[in-house]
Design goal:
This protein is an alpha/beta fold and 477 residues long. The chain has helices at 38-44, 61-69, 77-80, 92-111, 125-148, 165-172, 189-192, 197-208, 218-232, 251-257, 261-274, 293-306, 328-348, 364-373, 389-396, 412-415, 427-439, 442-456, 461-473; strands at 7-12, 18-23, 29-34, 52-57, 85-88, 149-158, 177-181, 212-215, 241-244, 279-286, 314-321, 356-359, 376-379, 402-406, 420-422. The chain binds 6-O-phosphono-alpha-D-glucopyranose (G6P). Residues 15, 104, 159, 183-184, 323-324 line the site of 6-O-phosphono-alpha-D-glucopyranose. InterPro entries: Glyco_trans_20.
Length: 477
Amino acid sequence: MASTHGAEVLVASNRGPVSYTVDDDSGGALRARRGGGGLVSGLSAIGPDTNAVWVCAALGDGDREAVRRADGGLLPTEDTGGQRVRMLDIDAEVHADAYNGIANSVLWFVHHMLYQTPLEPVFDAGFRRQWAAYEAYNRAFAEALAEEAAEGAAVLIQDYHLALAPRMLRRLRPDLRIGHFSHTPWAPPDYFRLLPDDIAAELLSGILGADRAAFLTQRWADAFKDCCHAVLGPGIPSGTRIGVHGLGADGDFLRKRAHEPDVDERMAALRQEIGEGRRTIVRVDRTELSKNIVRGLLAYRQLLDDHPEWREKVVHVAFAYPSRQDLAVYREYTAEVQRVAEEINARYGTPGWTPVELHVKDDFARSLAAYRLADVALVNPIRDGMNLVAKEIPLLSDEGCALVLSREAGAYEELGADAIVVNPYDVTGTADALHEALSLPREERAERSKRLAAAATALPPARWFLDQLHALDDQSS
Ligand code: G6P
């Protein structure tokens, strides 16, 4: 499809800023649901005068139907909050192999170091078939971007789903300024080299097709450079610069949103569940293997064992929202989270006290209510690109909260000094940290929380996005 949109700024990501469901009750009407997050607020920050387009993939039947009904490939702007969005209807099987197969079962696992050898990984003929789909999926993005972009436009390609697209796009359109941004950690070379050599080289060369490859922390940027040296030989090609842009919480939006009536209502309901005068340990995650929810629960169980004085006095409010349920290993993990929570409640619970309040149905207003009620925030991922929850809870907690934080989260680089830091595998150490956090004197907790909140909002999403855009032009950054 030839396009005349001539966009000056383009964003490309697997998941776009809007998703659709078909409402069978109202004769097949499409319902659009807008998402939030850093990219959405970042792109809106460039202002209405810049001609921008967001290219993303159709992720389900509703999305595919929306693409079929879309005019000239762009979704209706009333569905997108004014943004120009081109959704790609990539063949469902190709998308499944690229997204579930390569992106989420291989690349996500490599960068978060989640494989459990000796059973995984196995790179066989099935993997090669999925890899071909990943190439086709990346090519579909590169071609759409090449069609949409005006001469010399800036293109910001996001994440591990699209590691090959920068080089493909460069070949199609040498005039463009191309950036790639990784929202995940980057694996160290010894782990990255689990991948077959040709695939490892393809992934790195794909990203190096960009003018600038950027990461959330220096640690992940250094790991990327180390992988380039180990796999491709010494030296990053002179045409590619490596950058770091930490992403912070959207303080203005969150503070306002967290004081709207629906959040107040949910706070009242949560207070009832928790019970008068009890402390809260709050966590909010996708039910994601890398988030380490089960070890968090085991640490809480050990806290109740080691420190019986906390029984009846504390509640672990754990929100674990469904994620990537097409993958069996995620479904199994979700079941395990529920099993361990139930086991703790059965073992310690009393008629007036439920030790773990686990909620699995996604509800943003309720998450914000929990943030406001938090005395302790538990953020203990095995590895995490950044982790915005670690930034958002101290920002919103009404009384100030203590943060128990994994040293393997990107946020550790910015928040480590005022957090209680844990090795995410060390359940006993995490139980000790929870005890320390619950025992912090109120004033110290409030002081630390204030400093955490200041650090958390230092790089709001709009700034994060604009910095990347400007850095594309600035040869020295
Ligand atoms: C991480 C990735 C994002 C992804 C998100 C949710 O944050 O970096 O690219 O969109 O997880 O995962 P999902 O598979 O649901 O898009």
